[in-house]
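Researcher: We're teaching a course module on how sequence relates to structure. For the next exercise, students receive a sequence and then see the predicted structure as tokens, so they can try to spot secondary structure elements on their own. Here is the exercise chain.
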Amino acid sequence: MKAIVLLAPWLLFACQDGGPPVATFGTTVVIPSGLRGEVYHIPSNSRRLPNFAKLKSRGSIYTASLNIPTRNFREGFPGVTKRFEWFALDYSGKFWIEKPGDYRFFLMSDDGSKLYLDDRLAIDNDGIHAAAERTAAVTLEGGIHRIRVSYFQGPRLEVALVLRIAGPGEKPRIFSTDEFRPPPNPDDWKWRGH
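Model: And here is the predicted structure for the students to work with:
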């Protein structure tokens, strides 16, 4: 039987058969192979993603995937405390591609978001809007890649942030750094598929 133990509003753990706690989305528990999100407060008149270099981070949250389907803003965004609107998150991390080829990315958000792959803008879904999804096709070589997802929540009503991926010949699914984790030995990080 799975028991849910709420330790604090921003920390949620699931304990399986008395085993160690497992971190869920948006915790302050470091997930080494996951995405690190810096949390920012933004002015209430913001219409687009902020210049993060000019803001001070209010803390960090961690996750392996971005999977917040559309929900009422009063439910909050996992990991963001005491802020239901007018905040921004800047997630970054790395992922491993075992099978090179053409990948499709799907970024859905309410409000604005952007996806960067290897420091290049892949999807621009910025601005204040209801839940909307944008897609991009990207050719990825085998090996390690950098990923960054920037997001902001403006005025109330709903929040959402979902990142999906589809590899060559695959159906879209939630992108997770757990699935795209590099080999444990750094000597194997140089892709040998050439």
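Model: If you want an answer key for the exercise: The chain has one domain: 29-188. The radius of gyration is 17 Å.
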